[in-house]
Design a protein that fits this description.
heterodimer; A: mainly alpha; MetI-like fold; 0% strand; B: alpha+beta; Rossmann fold; OB fold (Dihydrolipoamide Acetyltransferase, E2P); 2 domains; globular; ATP hydrolysis activity (chain B); transport (chain B); translocase (chain B)
Chain lengths: 237, 359
């Protein structure tokens, strides 16, 4: 029995790789999209410019499109022969298609609407009067943002980060369409589970990885709750 | 230290057209709500860009729209170095009181010395609050911290927008003495917006009365707030501010427009549009309950009795409010009883003499 249990929990090298890859893809995707998410959230919350609705629509598109469609659009744009992909390859030697970097891009795009939405709401909740007061005390707009707006919107930023991270961990459709399912390169946790379900006798492996996915997501959620509570205590009016 | 303001600004239907200068001490912008006081303060503070005009502090141009297209000057709020105290305290909730106070010092370049900082903290009585967070302070404490925060940014001038209006009477009474100390102990000009007579009377050295987006008069609190001007060596009476609206050269008379009424005085080299101050001795004002006819006096103003104050020796001072102006009449107690004068009663003030006040 003990032997059975321990053998159930002994992960194969391939499974470890899938977990490590998922974490790497999700962390890179989340951290790189954070500054862009803050910028776009700020523009949508405060900006008054032509094409704002268009930007808003574009950001939210991955939320309403089938993930496969988003993945296919990424493939067209960022594939080796795609307009953006070809440029990135020639200019920086950066290849996205069928690489883990592409998986990170797909995860970032899919999580982006969730992150922006959370950040935008938190910026809208910041009292403009406080920013005005900071200005009269001599702070330039950049410093007002860094010392007043950003600290006050921090709970929303953290929530956005966690949502995007969770989305990245679970992303499947766009990833598999854009970068396929290559073990060791683009086979993330979700893709590995999918692969297990497609082969006879893969049930144990699928269940193992499923439990690990649940544990990782729960940990992230709890960590964010804790962090948000700590920050809220500092910021609370 | 002279702040000079001359601006025109349209906000929807409301037109602001204001010019005045303020010097050291406390200058109050006084008027009912909706008269444009706060808008003027926001323009001076750089929070609103006026349509046109000039704002200067000594030689320093803060706003100048009259230099031709593309050459407009509009110094942003954070470079004006004006301390601004708002109606609400607007403390930063994520910082402690100490950090709130220090906020402006990060940017002011020449930080206030430790001794100055300690003096301001002591003067406002907020030393025991330094390690607390704004959420735990009372309304009055918050507003004191907010005043301290503005002072510690080493401003060239302090702008205060009804800093007491959000507080109840007890809190007001708590803060007013601190404001008086500030005025008396710091050499800092203050522009103070308020609609409360008591506050302005207590704090201001100079009052700019505003109505409907325009300046209605500028003078000392006693003149502008309708108090009795009993300057030494001068007869008790009323001081009124108006503008010359018309000149009748044939009759040799000038028409002076007050807030709601007009007075005629000998022309005496006046120019149309000129702002003048008039002195009306209280002994030269008669009171009538009906409009008199067949009388030689040129100036009969209609108003209501605002106050009846005994002045000793059987005399009474009757304050008659005509629009925003108050005219004082000195009559006998006997007359008061005979006319059955009570506060609020509609009366006519018959003005026998009006003197131009060239003080």
């Amino acid at each position: 029995m003990v032997c059975l249990v321990s053998s159930f929990w002994s992960l194969s090298a391939e499974e470890w790789t899938a977990i490590a890859l998922s974490l790497r893809v999700s962390i890179v995707a989340t951290l790189l999209s954070l500054p862009v998410g803050i910028l776009v959230g700020y523009l949508l919350a405060r900006g008054r410019f032509w094409g704002k609705s268009l930007l808003n629509g574009l950001v939210h598109l991955p939320l309403i499109l089938p993930p496969v469609v988003t993945g296919y659009i990424l493939l067209i744009l960022f594939g080796r022969r795609g307009p953006v992909g070809a440029f990135l390859d020639q200019a920086f030697g950066l290849v996205l298609s069928f690489r883990w970097t592409g998986a990170a891009l797909a995860a970032a795009v899919m999580g982006f609407p969730l992150m922006v939405r959370s950040i935008r709401l938190s910026i809208e909740a910041v009292d403009v009067k406080l920013e005005e007061a900071a200005g009269t005390l001599g702070a330039s707009p950049v410093f007002v943002f860094l010392t007043v707006t950003l600290p006050l919107m921090l709970p929303g930023v953290i929530a956005g980060l966690i949502l995007a991270f969770a989305k990245a961990m679970g992303e499947f459709g766009a990833t598999i369409t854009f970068v396929s399912n290559i073990p060791g390169e683009t086979q993330t946790l979700s893709a590995a589970i999918y692969t297990f379900t497609q082969v006879p006798g893969g049930d144990a492996g699928a269940l193992r990885l499923t439990l690990i996915a649940v544990a990782l997501s729960m940990t992230a959620l709890l960590a964010s709750e804790l962090l948000a509570r700590l920050v809220a205590k500092r910021v609370a009016a | 230290m002279t702040l000079s303001v001359a601006i025109r600004h349209r906000q929807g239907e409301f037109l602001l057209d204001v010019s005045f200068a303020s010097e050291r001490g406390v200058t109050a912008l006084f008027g009912r709500s909706g008269s444009g006081k706060t808008s003027v303060l926001r323009i001076v503070g750089g929070l609103v860009r006026p349509d046109e005009g000039r704002v200067t502090l000594d030689g320093d141009i803060l706003v100048d729209t009259l230099r031709g297209p593309g050459r407009r000057i509009d110094v942003p709020a954070h470079r004006r170095r004006f301390g601004y105290v708002f109606q609400e305290p607007r403390l930063f909730p994520h910082l402690t009181v100490r950090q709130n106070l220090a906020y402006g010092r990060w940017f002011s370049g020449r930080a206030t010395s430790r001794a100055d900082a300690a003096r301001i903290v002591e003067m406002l009585g907020i030393g025991h609050l330094l390690d607390r967070r704004p959420a735990t302070l009372s309304g009055g404490e918050k507003q004191r911290v907010s005043i301290g925060r503005a002072l510690l940014s080493s401003p060239r001038m302090l702008l205060m927008d009804e800093p007491l209006s959000a507080l109840d009477e007890a809190r007001k009474a708590e803060i007013l003495p601190y404001l008086e100390r500030l005025r008396d102990e710091l050499d800092l000009p203050i522009l103070y917006v308020s609609h409360a007579v008591a506050e302005v009377a207590r704090l201001a050295d100079r009052v700019v009365v505003m109505a409907d987006g325009k300046v209605d008069g500028i003078g000392s609190p006693s003149e502008m707030l309708g108090g009795l001007a009993e300057a030494s060596g001068r007869e008790a009476g009323s001081v009124l501010t108006g503008t010359v609206s018309d000149l009748d050269r044939d009759a040799g008379l000038a028409v002076i427009s007050l807030s709601s009424s007009r007075l005629m005085i000998p022309q005496a080299g006046l120019v149309e549009g000129q702002s003048v101050r008039l002195h009306i001795p209280a002994r030269d004002v008669l009171v009538a309950t009906v409009r008199p006819e067949g009388i030689s006096a040129l100036n009969i103003l209609e108003g209501r009795v605002a106050a009846l104050e005994p002045r000793g020796a059987g005399t009474v001072d009757v304050a008659i409010r005509c629009g925003l102006d108050i005219i004082h009449a000195r009559i006998t107690e006997f007359s008061m009883h005979r006319l059955a004068l009570v506060e609020g009663m509609r009366v006519h003030a018959i003005v026998k003499t009006v003197a131009l006040d060239r003080g």
